Amino acid sequence: MTQCYVEIRSTTARGTDSVTADVMRHVYARQHLGKVVIISEEPPEYVAAARKQWLKLSRSLQKERAGTLNADKILKYTHTITRMQHMHFTTQSPLDEDDAEAYFLPAAGLAVMPLHCYTVYLLTPIDMALAEHMVQQLPPGALVVDYNKAAVWEEMLGLTPKRALESRVAQEWHSVVQFLNQHQIRIAELLPHTIRAFDAMDTALDELLAYSNDFLPRAGAFQRALELARPYKASKEQRAAYDTLILLAHRVQALSPGDFSRKFLESYDENDTFFLYDRGRPQKEAEPLAAAYARHMQAGRVHLARALLANHKHMQPLQ
């Protein structure tokens, strides 16, 4: 049987709206993974409540965006808000509507699951035969979130508790940090609040561009582990370190030879030209390519300087 995971979830709040709010916060954390299915007794009524909570989350994110001057965060918020506003909810079967992102179905709707469904929320009990049929249709790494506290998932169907996914995050993080340390790169020195973060990021980019084939798979494995484990509890400092690594991986990927992929860009939505800013210029004024090339060559960042020239056609206009 496909390797899937289970989270037995409960909420201390009472009432349908409160449970719905918890579900939609969970969906928000996993929205980049793939499609979701929410099983309830009255899908038409539930989808209306879900849309209300989804709108609240979107508005909250818009307030966060309005309250920051950080260009990285603004673009990241904008990407997420845009996706949320276009997320399609439906009560139709995947057979009748295959382009939705969130399906609100009765238990009988589990007979046919949408492709690339990585999260199923159960708000009403289902029988053993239907549970087994559902799991067989899920892709490896999918998560079943059960609000009914059923015991069948681990004991009878062999699903692994979600904490195993969270342990995988720690393992992949250790692997990628160990690789960076071997190349004299310290994530703590790349954090935005550090004094020399810009220079440290450029130096890290220069080093990793020579080892992108080794670095990017490690960064990708960490990001995938993190996506599958969401929602994932981490300290503010740890979240900042995770974001910095994904940002670094996107920049290395954008400047590496070969076809450009949106793998890291989709989850971070970072602008390719941020590291071209000259600290003596206003933040919104991009540094000319020739000046950036000369600055990096003078600093000894040969790989970065050459990558800028080789990839300038894929960048935003610099002049």
In short:
With 319 residues, the protein is an alpha/beta fold. The chain has twelve helices and seven strands.
Q: What's the structural blueprint in terms of helices and strands?
A:
Blueprint: E1 5-8, H1 16-30, E2 35-39, H2 43-66, H3 71-85, E3 89-90, E4 102-105, E5 117-122, H4 128-137, E6 143-146, H5 152-155, E7 160-161, H6 163-182, H7 197-208, H8 212-229, H9 236-255, H10 263-268, H11 289-298, H12 302-311
Parallel strand pairs: 1-6, 1-7, 2-4, 2-5, 3-4, 5-6
Fold and architecture overview:
With 319 residues, the protein is α/β, with parallel strands linked by helices. The protein is built from twelve helices and seven strands. It has helices at residues 16-30, 43-66, 71-85, 128-137, 152-155, 163-182, 197-208, 212-229, 236-255, 263-268, 289-298, 302-311; strands spanning 5-8, 35-39, 89-90, 102-105, 117-122, 143-146, 160-161. Helix 4 links the parallel strand 5 (117-122) and strand 6. Helix 1 (16-30) crosses helix 2 (43-66), helix 6 (163-182) packs antiparallel against helix 8 (212-229) and helix 11 (289-298) runs antiparallel to helix 12. Mean pLDDT is 83; it is low at 268-284 and 314-319.
